[in-house]
Amino acid sequence: MIILTKEHYRRILAHALDSLPLEACGLLVGSIEEDVKIVKKVYGLTNMDQSPEHFTMDPREQFDVMKDARKSGLVVLGNFHSHPATPARPSAEDMRLAYDPEASYLILSLRDQEKPVLKSFRIREREVEEEPITILSGNDSFEEKAFS
């Protein structure tokens, strides 16, 4: 399970909408308590591919996120990206590039921009399992930061 606040969701959505017609991407940082991932920071990153169908995160921005996570005593929980015109499910390329079996892979579908759909997945050896997401109405104790 992965938990995020409505503000985290709004940041992911805003980054995805601002990136249209391209795919947006970013990293999720937080803590793990038992088997529950708690998002504390959302980082919108640059899609180096500048493509509506795939993404590559900027390596320098990824490094900055990892440094900030370590400094804050947090870990990278996974990543997110948008699908501007397709459903919120991993594509063949998403599965092929899912190297970390412990990561959460969130996909935000903007196929219907009036009703965006956010889903999370665990991908192990190209086997996809949907991961439950809980979006909290608000929790002021979460530290949040976004950049794009």
CATH topology (level 3) name: Cytidine Deaminase, domain 2
CATH superfamily: Cytidine Deaminase, domain 2
* Sheet with most strands: 8 strands, mixed
Radius of gyration: 14 Å
Q: Report the structural category.
A: alpha/beta
Low-confidence segments, ≥5 residues, pLDDT <50?
139-148
CATH level 1 class label: Alpha Beta
CATH architectural name: 3-Layer(aba) Sandwich
Number of discrete helical segments: 3
Helix and strand topology:
Layout: E1 2-5, H1 6-19, E2 25-33, E3 36-45, H2 59-72, E4 75-83, H3 92-96, E5 104-109, E6 117-124, E7 127-131, E8 133-136
Parallel strand pairs: 1-3, 1-8, 4-5
Antiparallel strand pairs: 2-3, 2-4, 5-6, 6-7
Describe it for me?
Strands 7-6-5-4-2-3-1-8 form an 8-stranded mixed sheet. The chain is 22% helix and 37% strand. Strand 5 and strand 6 (117-124) form a beta hairpin. It has 148 residues and is an alpha/beta fold. Residues 139-148 have low confidence and may be disordered. It has 3 helices and 8 strands. It has a single domain, classed as Cytidine Deaminase, domain 2 (3-Layer(aba) Sandwich). The protein has helices at residues 6-19, 59-72, 92-96; strands at residues 2-5, 25-33, 36-45, 75-83, 104-109, 117-124, 127-131, 133-136. The longest helix has 14 residues, at 6-19. The protein is globular, with a radius of gyration of 14 Å.
Short characterization:
This protein has a single domain, classed as 3-Layer(aba) Sandwich (Cytidine Deaminase, domain 2). The chain contains three helices and eight strands; from the N terminus they run βαββαβαββββ. The chain has helices spanning 6-19, 59-72, 92-96, and strands spanning 2-5, 25-33, 36-45, 75-83, 104-109, 117-124, 127-131, 133-136.
